[in-house]
Automatic annotation (TrEMBL):
Superkingdom in the source lineage: Bacteria
UniProt keyword annotations, A-Z: Membrane, Transmembrane, Transmembrane helix
Span list, region Disordered: 1-29
Lineage: Bacteria, Pseudomonadati, Myxococcota, Myxococcia, Myxococcales
Protein name: Ig-like domain-containing protein
Keyword check for Membrane: yes
Organism in which the protein naturally occurs: Pyxidicoccus parkwayensis
TM region positions: 61-81
Positions with biased composition (Basic and acidic residues): 9-23
Length: 198
């Protein structure tokens, strides 16, 4: 070691030795303790400090409450997201003819496109289309005498569009009813067709 470092080291030791240890008076500790007990615990600061304080001091109440709230929220969210598809409903009465429909003049043939949607492929489905008086099926440029037409065909998964050609005999609003049966389920479509003068 060099001599200047020794003198600095010695000076530091002398200064540290000159420091006094002023211990508090005997009554100070008990007075401080009494004042802290009277003041009570400090209030948590707003924000995350308050949340941490709640979790730390009220854990037997807060944790179960948070768990129940999270469970209820998960149940509601999953219930809203995974609603089962409604079973096909059976129409008990024809829809009123105030539903807007397709317009076609008396002199024209209307092609009604029925769209049956299936979640999975169906090997065999029975179909029936019924026409009211005033409408007739049309095929190969001729009017067919049938009021109702039935057939069986397979359905693919997804959308299945079935075109039906009809022609109005006189002006008016008519309700065309189409029905599909597959695997014990019955699906019914009603289409309003308005035949106009022309």
């Amino acid at each position: 070691m060099s001599e200047p470092e020794d003198t600095e080291d010695r000076a530091l030791r002398e200064r540290l030795g000159a420091l006094r240890d002023d211990s508090p008076s005997p009554g100070f500790q008990s007075a401080l303790h009494r004042r802290l007990v009277e003041a009570g615990p400090p209030a948590p600061a707003p924000g995350w400090d308050w949340v941490r304080w709640q979790f730390r001091h009220r854990a037997p109440i807060v944790w179960p409450s948070v768990g129940v709230a999270a469970g209820v929220a998960a149940f509601l969210v999953l219930g809203a997201m995974t609603k089962p598809p409604a079973p096909p409903t059976v129409a008990e009465a024809p829809q009123p003819l105030t539903v807007p429909g397709t317009q076609v003049p008396v002199s024209k043939v209307a092609v009604i496109k029925l769209n049956f949607t299936a979640d999975v492929a169906v090997a065999q489905a029975d179909f029936q289309v019924s026409l009211p008086e005033g409408l007739s099926f049309w095929a190969d440029g001729e009017e067919l005498p049938l009021r109702s037409f039935q057939w069986t065909q397979a359905l693919s998964a997804g959308s299945n569009v079935i075109p039906i050609a009809v022609r109005g005999q006189r002006p008016g609003r008519y309700l065309v009813t189409a029905e599909a049966r597959a695997g014990g389920q019955r699906i019914e479509h009603d289409v309003v067709l308005e035949v106009t003068d022309g």
